[in-house]
Amino acid sequence: MISIFPGIEEFLDTQFIVLNSSEMTENEIDSIAKSNYPKPVFLVKDNTFYLIKCSYKTSQHLYFPCGIISANENIDYIVEKVAVYEHLIVKDQKGNVLGYVNSVGLSEKLFKAYQHLQAYISTILETIDESCTVIDDNKNVIAWTEGAEQIFSVKQEEIIGKQITDFFSPKRLEILNTLKSGTSVHHSQHKARENQVVMINSNPVYFKEKIIGAVVSETDITSQIKLNRELYYASEKLFHLEKEVNKLTSTEDPFIKIRGNSSVLKKTINKIKKVAATETNILICGESGVGKELFAKAVHTIREGNQAPFVVINCGAIPSALFESEIFGYEKGAFSGADQKGKKGKVELAKGGTLFLDEIGEMPLDMQVKMLRLLQEKKFYPVGGTKEIKVDFRVVAATNRDLGELVKGGKFRQDLYYRLNVVSIEVPPLRERLEDIIELTHYFLHEISIKYNRPIHGISQSVMQALLQHQWPGNIRELKNVVERLVVFSEDGEIKLDDLPFDTDTSQATNGNLVALSAYDNRSLQERLQEFEKDIILKELKKADGNKLLCAKNLQVTRATLYNRLNKLGVKI
């Protein structure tokens, strides 16, 4: 907002005389008024101020009543009052007279302020590089910058004062929608012409609650979109190539699929590494969707390598009646409907590898007894079998429930609990890993945009802030689903805040997230998150020896996205 109109003190005239009628005679008043002409003389009579004007034709003086205003009145009120009274007496809060304002002096000073404002606005419009267009309520163009000339190839002298619809199709003029409905547009892609795309901001001009015009600024992004598409297709090929290479070559890092650089995640990974160096049983705890199976797989890779079997038993997905046969297998003819050849159970398939008991808290009580014996003796009988089978495997269990409470409630065997819970490790929920939300979002955004062949230009600060404020009860699984939704509903590569499946309030962050960032940091959420993001990018750049293409690859984002984030964060390389 431009504020150059002077305050009331700039309008005041302080050269005047005030007389009190109760202390002076008519002749004295007349003499003082004539002798001080043209300096104004005011007479106070019955608490009313009068301007004394001398008439030399009749040798009499005339009295004109004056208005009284306080020094803190706004300019609108002063203009209204001066239309009634030619002169206004200005008083301070204590009732002291500070000066006077008259209609002639006020008009001169307001006109001068108007000329100054015109000079400022003209200089602003001449200075900015972007295209800026201003129209009045009759659709006439009243401002057209050099940036507009360059984008639309229409000269100022050709369009100023003429209707904008004489030069452009009304269907392609967002400024007309703003003029008609009063809607504002911010950072929205708009097809200005058949082969031209611009990023626009548009606002209505209000005067006394009535729309009197509209303003639109535009930046030509046609070339950026073209380059972004080229980068997208190049990164898509690179993405698929990387997947093929990963299939053919084994990675040395078993945690490569666990994405994130938060301190709590790093602590969890360090604990897993220490425990995985032993053969002890591990219980991985954490909410649904945090990636417990990925950690179990990392333990398996460290202990057994990629070639050894990794067998998953989801204890919450197997019906109770089939639990024993699924885990221990069965001999031919063991029960009605059984495979005539028999079937190996999960335990036997895990021989020489890892048996991962996912959602162990859902295992039926009668199976817990048999599972305890298996873990103690490493022996079992298939259903319908008479020959005991020996197996050697390592056990990793996972749960999203409090097993200690289940033991107290008689829903989980205490002896099995202690057998499994030799070492327990808690995987932190996503809401405690705010820094990781940024990295995971960009990774999923890139992966899913390639999957659906929908190039995305990036993610706005408002959308990212909404993601960071969400509590994520479904954790990483929920985040991936949300990002997939955003990509599916995206238009022209733009992700919209309205497409988020949960309520958003970007005006303030949730208490939990603020505490997770810092309990004593008074900076805004945006400033603190930008610091985290900047730190992540700088570390990856250092790892890549400044190679931006390699850095973008490691962060699972396009090079265009990386450059955009570097510019946004003010990182100079």
Describe this structure in words.
The model is unreliable at 506-521 (pLDDT under 50). The two termini are 35 Å apart. This protein is elongated. A 5-stranded antiparallel sheet has the order 9-8-12-11-10. Strands 14-17-20-13-21 form a 5-stranded parallel sheet. Helices cover 42% and strands 20% of the residues. By secondary structure, it is of the alpha/beta class.
Report a brief summary of the structure.
The chain is 42% helix and 20% strand. It has 573 residues and is α/β, with parallel strands linked by helices.
Secondary-structure-based class equals alpha/beta
First-last Cα distance: 35 Å
Biggest sheet: strand arrangement: 9-8-12-11-10
Largest sheet: 5 strands, antiparallel
List the helices and strands and how they pair.
Elements: H1 8-11, E1 17-20, H2 26-35, E2 41-45, E3 48-55, E4 60-65, E5 67-70, H3 75-82, E6 87-91, E7 97-102, H4 103-127, E8 131-136, E9 141-144, H5 146-152, H6 156-159, H7 174-181, E10 185-193, E11 196-207, E12 210-220, H8 222-248, H9 263-276, E13 282-285, H10 292-304, E14 310-314, H11 323-328, E15 329-330, E16 343-344, H12 346-349, E17 354-358, H13 365-377, E18 379-380, E19 389-390, E20 394-399, H14 403-408, H15 414-420, E21 423-426, H16 434-451, H17 461-469, H18 475-489, H19 511-517, H20 525-543, H21 548-554, H22 559-569
Parallel strand pairs: 1-2, 5-6, 13-20, 13-21, 14-17, 17-20
Antiparallel strand pairs: 2-3, 3-4, 6-7, 8-9, 8-12, 10-11, 11-12, 15-16, 18-19
Helix pairs in contact: 9-10, 16-18, 20-21, 20-22, 21-22
